[in-house]
Amino acid sequence: MTLADRTKIVYAIPHLSGEETEHFAHLPAFLEALGRRVDVVALVERGTPPATLPGVKRVISTVGRTRLARLHRSLEALRFCARAGYRTYFVRYSRQLLILLILTSPFFRHRVFLWRSGTADLVEPGARKTLRHRLDNGLNYLLARCVHGLVTGPETMVEVMSARWRVPRRKMRLLYNDIDGDRFAPLPPSERDQVRRRRGWGDDEFVILFVHRLSFRRGTRLLAPLLDALESGLPHPVRLVVVGEGPDRPYLERLGAGRSNMRIMGAVPNRDLPPLYAAADCFLMPSYEEGFPRVLLEAMSSALPIVTTGAGGSADVVGKDYPFVCDVGDLEALTEAVNQVARMSPRERADLGDRLRIRALDEFSPQRVARMLEDIL
């Protein structure tokens, strides 16, 4: 294959900046790997994108102060890409761009692949789905059926998303999320100790880390009861560190008021997360609803033992034989699983973490996921 014959793709990035707290911060490493296989244009919609990205032929910013300004810049970007021979788009979540791509497809003759994982159907007890939620679902249903392919992962979510959005199985595509194993990695013991001391974590403390959106769907209301149950059963102190923002933050702050062993850090830029993972003793994800949670990949790559529910594709991510996958909403099982990890020797926890890291590097490397996307294209 000559350079002129290489596949061309426009990869739409909803948000990119140095302070990025969402999983879009992972995309530059992935695009660098993808750029070794295909020609890539990155289309960045919000944030403060850099002028260049490794492996990317061109970075196009459609950032604007108003929705109309972003729409105009997006249309100009589509015209440029069509003239340059780019007629395949990969879109993550961005609905305005997706609608524009579908409407202009007859003119520019491009293909659109939409990534979507997770259902967001759960409503907390006592609440009802709002009219806006119902309208959003209706629009998402129409859009999912208009694209050339609906891309999702991991394996469990292919059937879930096909049924959820009534997309024919022939239009479904499997694609993993990826993790940069160089950025999310274990720390040497001396550096790990330094991180713990800077954070005020005691040498004898068992530190549980939660990183996610603070919402009912992510199981945040199970955190305080779980911490209470653990305190009575372990011979050493326990500390819960909560990273994230969301509607449940006031609820957690009320429960955590006056407690020295529960720290709510709020949102942390993704670039600053690796030391937190590497210095903790256990990662906890008690979600009721998930798709393909990148936080599991971050913990796995950091060699951090995990306790999770089987929500969405979580069991596919950690591996079907992983011992600490609990039923959704089962507080007793989650507590017992964390207890078991806490009672392990440091060597046993390290072995469990190493097992997860090996899986992360083998199954979810940017290089492997880039090959998967190239096969889809």
TrEMBL record:
Domain Glycosyl transferase family: 192-353
Cleavable signal peptide: none
Keywords: Transferase
Top-level lineage group: Bacteria
InterPro entries per the UniProt record, alphabetical: Glyco_trans_1, Glycosyltransferase_grp1
Pfam families from the UniProt entry: Glycos_transf_1
PANTHER family listed in its UniProt record: SULFOQUINOVOSYL TRANSFERASE SQD2 (PTHR45947:SF3)
Protein name, entry field: Glycosyl transferase family 1 domain-containing protein
